[in-house]
Amino acid sequence: MRPFGLAVSIVSVLAGSALPAPPARAMIRNNEVVITGKALYAMCTNTDADILQDCATFIRGFVEGARSASDMNSAVPFFCLPDSADTDLIVLAFTRQVERLPRSSMDDTAANVLRDALWLAFPCSQ
Question: 98, 106 in Cβ contact below 8 A?
Answer without folding.
Answer: yes
